[in-house]
Amino acid sequence: MTQRQNITSEEDEVLILDAVREFLKRDVAPYAHDLEARDEYPQKIADKMAELGLFGITISSDYGGLGLSAATFARIVEEIAAVWMSVGGIIGSHLIMARLVERFGSDEMKQAYLPKFASGELRGGIALTEPDAGTDLQAIRMRAAREGDEYVINGSKMWITNSMMGNILAVLVKTDTRAEPAHKGMSLLLVPRQAGYVPSKLEKLGYRGIDTCGIEFCDVRVPAANLIGGEEGRGLQQTLNAIELGRINVAARGTGIARACLEESLAYAQTRRTFGKPICQHQSIQIKLADMATRVEAARLLTEQAAHAFDEGRRSDLEAGMAKLFATEAAMENSAEAMRIHGAYGYSKEFNIERYYRDAPLLAIGEGTNELQRLIIARQLVEKYPV
């Protein structure tokens, strides 16, 4: 594999991150609390992200995107997650779909879709999980039968981001139910909303505001030209390639939440007083803050390492797995410690801490559970360091 193109200079990255921080301060932070409480989709925020070009962060400039490196993408996602994680989900799933098209699509598919992905005219994500198939993707049952110049899709998907407010999905299907092993019968299809799939919004503990849905496909028809890669049976391999970027994205989200928990706890600990002094002067609180800060720095470094490996065109599933595992566990641990530091205020809806506490567990589940990450890491270590 060749090294990715369009990697920005340090000066460009500083300007981009400054613009993102200003957008978050002006257009997201003042509204996140109320939108999250109402579980309301942040339409104005999503439209503003399109204006800023954030739907095209990692899409090549050849197709109208920003062409940013995965390392810069990870820093942007961290900044967003530190304010409101749900906003990052809107572009995260979308960019994984875009990578599938840019990496595996035909020239005609790239020209037709990538400029619209980059502008935000088409917004969507990837539909992998089913009611009985999540981490074990080879167990999917959704069927896409070839009929002439079309595929006819039937089945259900579950926990799909951008499936109600978005207008296109990359859908993992079975094109050959008899193939052995099972992955040889799996393919990816681009399915526009107008094809007729029906989403229904799911109620969630956290990650509110963003549209996460179950979807029913009943005789949904798409042109055979919508087969990503133009060849059946490559869907699982294509998906696993794209998920490397997905795990970097989730690791960056974990880093952002862990950082937000640290920053708010550090500020609170310097103003909250007990027994005649700020609680930051109590040794037990100091130990918590030190551990929280160490987790944030370690999570960021692991995420950067995975992103650099991805940018250099190296296989990065080991690095991405480590980053995803550590950063998401850091988010969970820091959110719990932040609640302890804030005491009753951490349990109150008036503060952000309870939102971080509800959002963090999703990261340990999504994009492959952390139990799976441990297995991937161990297998890669054995392969990398044989006796």
Helical content band = 40-55%
Full CATH superfamily name of the largest domain: Butyryl-CoA Dehydrogenase, subunit A, domain 3
**Alpha carbon gyration radius:** 21 Å
Class by alpha and beta content: alpha+beta
Low-pLDDT ranges: 1-7
> What about the largest sheet?
4 strands, antiparallel
How would you sum up the global shape? globular
In CATH, the architecture of the largest domain is Up-down Bundle
First-residue to last-residue Cα separation:
28 Å
Give me the side-by-side strand order of the main sheet.
Answer: 2-3-7-6
Mean pLDDT: 94
In percent terms, what proportion of residues is strand? 5-15%
Q: Class of the largest domain, according to the CATH hierarchy?
A: Mainly Alpha
3D architecture notes:
A 4-stranded antiparallel β-sheet has the order 2-3-7-6, with helices on one face. It has a 3-stranded mixed β-sheet with strand order 1-4-5. It is globular, with a radius of gyration of 21 Å. Helix 4 (about 85-105) runs antiparallel to helix 5. The chain is built from 10 helices and 9 strands. The chain is an alpha+beta fold and about 375 residues long. Mean pLDDT is about 95; it is low at about 1-5. Strand 2 (about 145) and strand 3 (about 150-160) form a beta hairpin. The longest helix is centred in the middle third of the chain and has 37 residues, at about 235-270. It has 3 domains: about 10-125, Butyryl-Coa Dehydrogenase, subunit A, domain 1 (Orthogonal Bundle); about 125-235, Butyryl-CoA Dehydrogenase, subunit A, domain 2 (Beta Barrel), CATH 2.40.110; about 235-385, Butyryl-CoA Dehydrogenase, subunit A, domain 3, CATH 1.20.140.
